Q: What sequence folds into this?
C-alpha cells in the first residue's frame, strides 16, 4: 500500500508569516492537530502541532502575535506520496514522531499520521480474524478429495 | 487485564483557578498531554488536554491569564479502578475521548489511561500471539 492511500486527512498548511493565534484558529477550523508550515510558494519548511502552541508558545509566554515559524519544528521529515506505507513505519519509529507530511515536487499533498497506521493495521487484523472466527464457530469444512469422488 | 495495570501515575492535577499558562508549563515540565482539574478537597472537577489549551486558549482574543475552568471539559468521562482494558476502550469510543482518569468509588483520580496505552497493550498481545505461531511452526518443521 502506498502512503497516500493511508492518509485520511487533507493536507493542512499555513504560511510561515502567519501568527500563532491564526495557527490555533486554523487547527480548530480544520480539526487537525498539526499544520505544515510553508513558504509563499508552497515549499514546506517546518511543522507545528497543537502541543507546540502550548509548550513552546504559551508556556514560554511567547506573544500570540508572533510568527508561527518562531515555534515550529524545523527538522521536518517528509515522505513521497508513492512511498510504501512500510517506509512511514520506519520513519515514525526512528524519529519518534507521529505525523509525516507527504510531499511531491515541493508541494504538500497529504499527511500520514500514526493514527492512520493504527486504523489500517487493525482493519487488516479484523479481516484476518474473520476466517478464524468462522472456523471456531462452524468448524473446519471438509474439502472434497479426489479419492472421495472415486 | 485491568486498567489499573496500564494507567499512568501519579495524576498531574491543578486547581480550577490555575491559569492556562500555568497549565501549559505543567504539561511541559511533567511531560503529560492532559491535566486533571480538582476542587479544594481533591474531587474531580474537569480535565484539560493540550489540544483544549491550544484551540480554546491560544486562539483569537485569548490570553495565558485565562482561568483553566473556563476552557476545561466538565462531565469528565472516567473509568473505574477495577475495570478491564476493554471497558476503557468502550468508554473511549462512546465518549469520543482518548484519555480517561481512572477513579475510585469517591471519584478521586488514581491514574490516567490513554488510547496510546491501549494500542501498546494490543501490540504486545498481538506480538505474543505471533511468537506462539512462530514457535509452533518451528516445532513442526523440526519434527522427524
A:
Amino acid at each position: 500500500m502506498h502512503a497516500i492511500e493511508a492518509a485520511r486527512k487533507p493536507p493542512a498548511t499555513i504560511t510561515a508569516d502567519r501568527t500563532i493565534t491564526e495557527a490555533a484558529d486554523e487547527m480548530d477550523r480544520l480539526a487537525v492537530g498539526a499544520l505544515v508550515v510553508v513558504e509563499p510558494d508552497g515549499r514546506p519548511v517546518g511543522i507545528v502541532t497543537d502541543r507546540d502552541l502550548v509548550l513552546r508558545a504559551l508556556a514560554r509566554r511567547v506573544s500570540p502575535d508572533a510568527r508561527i515559524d518562531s515555534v515550529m519544528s524545523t527538522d521536518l521529515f517528509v515522505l513521497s506520496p508513492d512511498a510504501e506505507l512500510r517506509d512511514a513505519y520506519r520513519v515514525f519509529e526512528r524519529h519518534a514522531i507521529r505525523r509525516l507530511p507527504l510531499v511531491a515536487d515541493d508541494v504538500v499533498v497529504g499527511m500520514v499520521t500514526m493514527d492512520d497506521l493504527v486504523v489500517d493495521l487493525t482493519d487488516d487484523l479484523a479481516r484476518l480474524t474473520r476466517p478464524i472466527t468462522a472456523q471456531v464457530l462452524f468448524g473446519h469444512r471438509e474439502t472434497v478429495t479426489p479419492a472421495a469422488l472415486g | 487485564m485491568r486498567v489499573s495495570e496500564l494507567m499512568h501515575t501519579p495524576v498531574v492535577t491543578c486547581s480550577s483557578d490555575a491559569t492556562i499558562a500555568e497549565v501549559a508549563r505543567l504539561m511541559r515540565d511533567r511531560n503529560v498531554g492532559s491535566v486533571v482539574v480538582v476542587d479544594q478537597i481533591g474531587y474531580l472537577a474537569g480535565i484539560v488536554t493540550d489540544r483544549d489549551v491550544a484551540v480554546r486558549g491560544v486562539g483569537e482574543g485569548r490570553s495565558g491569564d485565562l482561568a483553566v475552568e473556563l476552557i476545561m471539559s466538565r462531565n469528565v468521562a472516567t473509568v473505574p479502578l477495577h475495570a478491564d482494558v476493554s471497558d476503557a476502550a468502550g468508554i473511549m469510543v462512546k465518549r469520543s475521548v482518548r484519555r480517561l482518569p481512572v477513579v475510585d468509588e469517591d471519584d478521586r483520580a488514581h491514574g490516567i489511561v490513554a488510547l496510546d496505552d491501549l494500542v501498546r497493550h494490543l501490540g504486545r498481545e498481538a506480538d505474543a500471539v505471533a511468537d506462539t505461531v512462530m514457535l509452533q511452526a518451528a516445532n513442526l518443521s523440526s519434527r522427524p
